TrEMBL record:
It comes from Stentor coeruleus. It comes from the Eukaryota. This is FHA domain-containing protein. InterPro entries: FHA_dom, SMAD_FHA_dom_sf. Residues 107-149, 200-252 form the FHA domain.
């Protein structure tokens, strides 16, 4: 974890602004977006198409410092009944610090007692009938649990058990995949794969492509396949893992209904109301 903490602090991420979303609007993912939980493309409204008001509920599932079952109601202008802003600015901020320079800086107060919680930890932004989540770089990360195949992209950080790895893809007619571990028992190790070496299994079993002796991992914890592009999914393709495979929300990612996210030692679920 110390190695990951050092890497995390050296990422040099910018503070997050709403304009960051629009920078991703032109990403050409096409077919990859059909399965990608992290698609940042925002659909544009057609002529004559009316905007629909969309609401988001953030539900606390497990926590050491927050009440399980508590629901935060979020509207397109922000958290309903927020102390931070009365008029709303389309954003929600969550972190352990309430005041800074005489101003309320967070809508949701996260417990300081939990490991890895930042003063301003993550934000949610509303745009074009969708909500987007982004980690703000203070703390030990905001993670999304993979519940469907994820189209891998360069510099994605994937977490499972005590391990964190970075995705590197060499773009070519036959894109080579490199998995570089930045924390955990295989820290500093690299594993390289060509498309014809798919599928790649990660877990505790002796026949796994990358094997771990880690009791927190499932026998077949996660799976990477190549089908015109590299995809990753939790579990063995039929059954999900016990403790999950997690994607670090370094950039804005579109929130979908039922998404699970982990912040410090708190687990949350998103419910979208249309």
């Amino acid at each position: 974890m110390d190695t990951f903490r050092k890497f995390f602090s050296n990422l040099g991420r910018r503070c997050c602004f709403a304009s960051d979303i629009s920078n991703n609007d032109g990403m050409d993912l096409e077919d990859k977006n059909k399965l990608d939980i992290t698609s940042s493309q925002v659909p544009k409204l057609g002529l004559g198409q009316e905007k629909k008001e969309v609401f988001l509920n953030l539900v606390i599932i497990e926590s050491k410092g927050m009440q399980p079952g508590k629901i935060y109601n979020i509207s397109p202008i922000g958290l309903i009944n927020s102390d931070r802003t009365k008029s709303g600015d389309g954003c929600l901020y969550a972190g352990s610090l309430y005041y800074e320079d005489g101003k309320i800086i967070n809508d949701i107060l996260l417990p300081q007692s939990e490991k890895g919680i930042g003063k301003r930890h993550f934000m949610i932004h509303y745009k074009n009938e969708s909500y987007f989540l982004k980690d703000l770089g203070d703390g030990m990360g905001t993670f999304i649990r993979l519940s469907r195949p994820l189209a891998l992209q360069n510099n994605y950080i994937i977490s499972f058990g005590d391990s964190h790895m970075i995705i590197v893809i060499e773009h070519s007619t036959s894109p080579k995949l490199t998995l570089r571990f930045i924390d955990g028992p295989k820290v500093d190790q690299k594993f390289k794969f060509m498309p014809n070496e798919s599928p790649i299994t990660i877990g505790r079993m002796s026949d796994c492509t990358i094997r771990f002796d880690d009791s927190s991992l499932s026998r077949y914890h996660c799976l990477i396949t190549f089908n015109g592009w590299w995809y990753m999914q939790d579990g063995d393709g039929k059954k999900i893992s016990t403790n999950g495979t997690w994607l670090f929300a370094e950039d804005f990612y579109e929130i979908y209904n039922g998404m699970m996210l982990k912040v410090g030692e708190t687990l949350m679920r998103t419910d979208i109301k249309r």
